[in-house]
Amino acid sequence: MAPTLTRTNAESAPNSLYSFSLKGLLQTALILFLIFFVVKTVWLYSLRVGGKELIEGKAEKDLQQRRNYLVRKVIKERASVKSTPQLLDPTFQGEWAIVTYSMTALALTNMAFKDPALYGKEHKKLVGKLVKMAQIDEIQEFDTRLWNEKPMNALKAFKKGKEAKGHVGYVGHLGIIVASHYALGGKENLELFRLIANYSRSLLMQSPHMLSETYPGECYIPDNVVLVAVISLYDELVQGEKKPTSFTKQWVAKMKKEFIDKKSGLMAFTVSAKGKVIQGGRGSSGGWNSHYLLHAHPEFAKELYLNLEKNFYDKLFFGIAGMREWPHGVDKEGDVDSGPLIFGLSPSGTGFSIAGALFIRRETVLDALLFTSEAAGFTFLWRKERSYLLAPLVGEAIMLAMKTVRLWDKRFIH
């Protein structure tokens, strides 16, 4: 006898099928997540570099393979503005391009000082190529558009006696690339190094606050910090002054007097033409400043880093920790400078802070910063190259510069 299909059975049958289908999807999703989690965990722990390894100089394989990737992508394949994310505003695309060049130059120079026999001659040639690449019109364009003048033309005009004005965002990073090349023995760019240093010094000395505009009406202290690093490197490597140089001492005294944010212990992010603080200290700028100032005033850089760690370092879960973009107790959105915030943590602030933690040997914090960076970036290994699968090219360059940070001397200059 066939079963009778009652109204109740007929109505419940589709619901049962729906429940079974949904349950199956959830089970499949859970299994896939667990597989991904296991693979990610194994991958993370097999390829990550720990703080102790980096401090003790035992991460050479990682650094060399990341260096191989950068040399190919940035120099051999001639990375340009087109190599940056195309959804970015054109100004930010240009900034990312020049920063990719300058961070690559810093990383290559750091590695040459770590192992002169292995990298000295080759890296001098590679950084020399970056000096030329950085001066093409496409790389100048972001700055040219906002100042209605090519920055290289502004430098030429200054050389002929015209007053220095603007172009901080471009000139600072070109200066870092040229300084890197000179530090490696590239004397053919000495006159350009001198011109950039003198132009930068003139810019800062014109202002009662010793700060200059990145773009018309916009003054960002982190961009001025790059100028200070360039001036300091010139005074040290060319003029023979000892670090911190007289100019750097004067500039740091001015910053301490006028622009230290009491809540964060960091320098303000942006100020008005009249010297009024518009935005206080941030994690991304704090890490950036403490890195660049190692080349100008190591003690002040250390002070800034420790304040950053005290007021911005945060631990989350599963070993994830890093620098917040805003001080503890302040919750705001991120932006293009910080990157997308993850429970308040700043990708940029966390990455830039690696330099300070490494330089002053904060092993536990450094280990956490490296772990978080690896968890977020997901290292991809191919042949003799390593890169972060989820990081833009500028992020690759920044990370290698931070993981190799060191002071330079005059050993290559003859």
Question: If you had to describe this structure to a student in words, what would you say it looks like?
Answer:
This protein is mainly alpha-helical and 414 residues long. 61% of the residues lie in helices and 5% in strands. The chain has helices at 7-47, 51-55, 60-76, 90-114, 116-133, 137-147, 151-159, 168-183, 190-206, 221-237, 246-258, 283-292, 298-312, 347-359, 363-377, 393-403; strands spanning 219-220, 270-271, 277-279, 313-315, 321-323, 379-382, 385-388. The chain has a three-stranded antiparallel beta sheet with strand order 1-2-3. The chain has a two-stranded antiparallel ribbon with strand order 4-5. Helix 8 (168-183) packs parallel to helix 10 (221-237). It is globular. The chain starts with 6 loop residues before the first helix and ends in an 11-residue tail after the last helix. Residues 1-13 have low confidence and may be disordered.
Give me some keywords for this one.
three-stranded antiparallel beta sheet; two-stranded antiparallel sheet; 61% helix; 414 residues; mainly alpha; disordered N terminus; 16 helices
Cα-to-Cα separation, first versus last residue: 104 Å
In the predicted model, the low-confidence regions spanning at least 5 consecutive residues are 1-13
> N-to-C SSE series?
HHHHHHHHHEHHEEHHEEHHEEH
Quick one: overall form? Answer: globular
Average predicted confidence as pLDDT: 90
Fraction of residues in helix: 55-70%
SSE class: mainly alpha
Oligomer: single chain
